[in-house]
Model the fold of this input.
Amino acid sequence: MVRSSVNFRKTFIRVRTVLAVAFLALISGCKVGPDYAPPRTELPDKWEQAAVSGLEDGTANLQTWWHQFDDPFLNSLIEKARTNNISLQIAARRIDESMAVRGIVRSEYFGTVDAGGTAQITRSSEGTTPLPPGTDRESEYYAVGLEAAWEADLWGRIRRGVESAQAGVEVSIEDYRDVLVLLNAQVAGTYVDARTLQNQIDLTEFNINLQQATLQLTRDRYNAGLVAELDVHRAELNLARTESSLPSLRSDLKQAINALSVLVGELPSPLQIQFEKTFPIPSASVPVFAGVPANLLRQRPDIRRAERAIAEQNARIGLATSDWYPRLFITGDLKLDSTSASGFFNSGNVAYAFGPQVRWNIFNGGRIRNQVNLEELRTAQAVSVYEDTLLRAVEDVENAMVFYVEQQERLKALVRSVKAAEASVAQVQDLYKSGLTDFQNVLDMERSLFEQQNLQAASQGNIAHGVISIYRSVGGGWRTGSDTNVQTTASLGNEISQP
Done:
């Protein structure tokens, strides 16, 4: 009884010592390696005057910028794409993947506990193991127990790993947002292409009818002996040339609708039916705002992703540096074992072992030094990628703004040229009927009208593309609640919908 009391006190003292070591390891732990500091960036207070001439000052609604086109069909297509697009679903799956990686790394905080058991009967060979007569050659062994191990994160190895994994999650979220921004622009741009092609088809059919009437006029005048047969052939040539452009336009329209179908995650047939009727080319119903360059840092997912990639890589420097230092583990096992199944659960069959262990890699041939150097170089590369991304983003925005502004000026000139061409065609036809002008003038004016009308339609489409490019280039369209529409993970939550 006295011996049991002494053994209990000894055990209690040992356990208390081990727990004290673990507690001191927890409260004294530090993190090796550099702490992350976001890169300093300098952006101009405003855009170049040439880029924003004709744009409004102020802040636009970036969340649902496509509503400015006031086109319910376009709105529905974008919502379908945000729900069904396969590329967006893949990006969401990658968020889940990165969160799973983070969970694996975080699990190192808690150590491991393994359970095991053994039940075996062995018999020794008479030919190899001589035993005294009457000795039983069979023996039994039974054991069941737990083994545990926990690492004290003295130098922040685990914490740096979690820090890197968390930044990796944020990188994947920004990847998702980037796909979403591009998807919005692709759907809107492809829709504009389809509407532009529809209008060009209508214009082509209008000019075919006009030139058919001219051909009939030349035939009538030829039959009346008023003009040479050459006028008829030239009218036939002009008409055939215009008719030849129609199949290409129809083919391009079908391809645009098929591309839209892929973007919204549907088969092409339903959309082909919905595009049977021609609608005007979309145009913004409100002014386009220039915004502020500094907002790029807060809004563009590719810039945000590049910044998070630096943080992810920076933490890996500390992770590699921690290999220079010893690692402290608290290990132990508790089990019941016996050579007999009877009375197996008796207290006398309890066995245990516990205590701290230290592992220290004191020689590695320069591996750790080179690994730290490698992570530092990769971090420097990530910084360069961030700086390059920022510069290209500024270039992207200013190019989009200049394109939009200049296309507006171009459209104004084309509107005047179309009006002049329409008036010229009407006048030259009257003169030709009166015999006061050569037929070549009729052909030239009809070709000019066809050309200018198509250029005007293309310019209207380009202006819509300019609006789309501006809002894409500033990262518009990812902070809406429908960022979580994709039915792939509940873990996206507010992490995606909040900046």
Notes: The two ends are 68 Å apart (CA to CA). The first helix runs from residue 2 to 28. The CA atoms of residues 414 and 456 lie 6 Å apart. The chain has one domain: 29-111+156-327+373-497.
